[in-house]
Specification:
- By secondary structure, this protein is of the alpha/beta class.
- The chain has 2 domains: 157 residues, Beta Barrel (Lyase, Ornithine Decarboxylase, Chain A, domain 1); 245 residues, Alpha-Beta Barrel (TIM Barrel).
- 29% of the residues lie in helices and 26% in strands.
- The chain contains 12 helices and 21 strands.
- Strands 4, 14, 15, 16, 17, 18, 19, 20 and 21 form a 9-stranded mixed β-sheet that branches. The chain has an 8-stranded parallel beta barrel with strand order 5-6-7-8-9-11-12-13, surrounded by 5 helices. Strands 1-2-3 form a 3-stranded antiparallel β-sheet.
- Strand 12, helix 9 and strand 13 form a beta-alpha-beta unit.
- Helix 2 runs parallel beside helix 9 and helix 7 runs parallel beside helix 8.
- Bound molecules: pyridoxal-5'-phosphate.
- The site of pyridoxal-5'-phosphate has 16 residues, from helix 10.
Length: 419
């Protein structure tokens, strides 16, 4: 089982709170996060990287509830953001803008302006066009915008193609071979202050050699830029460390991950920036769902539950595996089932051909590894309100986002006069 989740008297607990109790009071589906888990994982990074003392910028898109952001901010984290909405969340949560890095290929004028005015640490610039735009806006504001160029180190880690971001054909970053020229151009721009180099090669990566190749290329580039007289203070290696979804998964320990960077950065004048998301939150949260029906076709058995692809899209979108177990431990016999939601799409499933104990309507299931890219990717498809979110600490739980209501869903919609 994942840390902070265990059976006690045949009932599943998160820290010292019964998941049945949360389900009774808050309903299903519900996202439930363990404070201790996210804290331990964050401190795991701090400890593994104590030689380098990096700035750890939690990637807000993984799970962006302001309570989660506040928890990380209190632990000393900075933030990797990809929109001005995320910056506003960080600021609302009391995060320090001087610890914020701003990534993303399509920053708008307004986003750039607000980020400059908020005094973020640096922009991760993803194209020459964006560099020019940031320069223009900074000059207009009579400021200097701090930047890193996000380089594309042309590395293809072994992960799902949708979450691989550092190979040559990817939309992210600037090709490494062009980077020096772009930096030299940037150095001449009045509104630009070069301070860093950035890469992010993808997500759910187990193969440490991909990270090793990436940091080697970045350090090499940084050295070349320094020879050219540029100032490089930070090397931002992005996020991407993988986590255990299936029992057979064996992600590398943080200590091994940290060693790679130590090897390349020890006694070098660069401060490391990390942007972990999944590895902090993925296994710190679950989604609960209630069994509505069992249905037996001639070919297949289905368990129909009250959570759907709008609540957790990862199985449908990436064909990803999530461990699912009943919250009340059972000795019922296993059968092979598809666990599916109520949405009118054949792609709406949480698990396919899963060996699962026979469960009855009304039972609560826990879907593991849902703390990252879970609620954050939820939608209202089929006019389904988004789930509630709960944060547990010790023997208490706190609703950090209430379940949406019908009024939330139709807010802003209006019927024109001619109808
Ligand atoms: C998504 C993302 C991350 C976080 O990746 P994880 O795999 O969740 O650690 C970090 N940096 C950037 C630029 C990203 O887009």
């Amino acid at each position: 089982m994942f840390e902070q989740f265990q059976y006690l008297n045949d009932q599943l607990y998160i820290e010292d709170v019964s998941i049945n109790k949360i389900s009774d009071e808050v309903g299903t589906p519900c996202y439930i996060y363990s404070y201790k888990s996210l804290k331990d994982r964050f401190e795991g990074y701090v400890d593994a990287f104590r030689e380098l003392e990096p700035l750890i910028c939690y990637s807000a898109k993984a799970s962006s509830n302001i309570a989660i952001l506040k928890a990380f901010s209190n632990l000393g984290a900075g933030f990797d953001i990809v929109s001005i909405g995320e910056l506003k969340r960080v600021l609302k949560a009391g995060g320090d803008p001087q610890k914020v890095v701003f990534s993303g290929v399509g920053k708008t004028d307004i986003e750039i302006e607000e980020a400059i005015n908020s005094n973020i640490l640096f922009f991760n610039v993803e194209s020459e066009e964006e560099l020019h735009k940031i320069n223009e806006i900074a000059i207009r504001l009579d400021k200097k915008a701090p930047i890193a160029i996000r380089v594309n180190p042309d590395i293809s880690p072994d992960t799902h193609p949708y979450i691989s971001t550092g190979f040559k054909e990817s939309k992210f970053g600037i090709e490494l071979s062009k980077a020096i020229e772009v930096y030299k151009d940037a150095a001449k721009m009045q509104g630009i202050n070069i301070c860093a180099i950035d890469a992010h090669i993808g997500s759910q990566i187990f193969d440490l050699s991909s990270f090793s190749d990436s940091i080697a290329k970045l350090v090499d580039l940084a050295n070349k830029l320094i020879i050219q007289g540029l100032k490089i203070e930070y090397i931002d290696i992005g996020g991407g460390l993988g986590i255990k979804y299936e029992d057979k998964d064996n992600p590398p320990p943080k200590s091994e991950y940290a060693k790679i960077f130590e090897k390349h950065l020890k006694d070098k004048p660069f401060k490391l920036v990390l942007e972990p998301g999944r590895s902090l939150m993925g296994n710190s949260g679950i989604m609960t769902t209630k069994v509505l029906y069992r249905k037996e076709g001639s070919e297949k058995k289905f368990v129909i539950v009250d959570a759907a692809m709008n609540d957790l899209i990862r199985p449908s979108f990436y064909n990803s595996f999530h461990k699912i177990i009943p919250v009340n431990r059972t000795t019922a016999k296993d059968e092979v089932v598809d666990i599916v939601g109520p949405i009118c799409e054949s792609g709406d499933f949480l698990a396919k051909k899963r060996l699962f104990p026979k469960v009855e309507p009304g039972e609560i299931l826990a879907v593991f590894s849902a703390g990252a890219y879970g609620f954050a990717m939820a939608s209202n498809y089929n006019t389904r309100p988004r789930a509630a979110e709960v944060l547990v600490k010790d023997d208490k739980f706190y609703v950090i986002k209430s379940r949406e209501t019908f009024e939330d869903l139709v807010r802003g919609e209006q019927i024109p006069d001619f109808l």
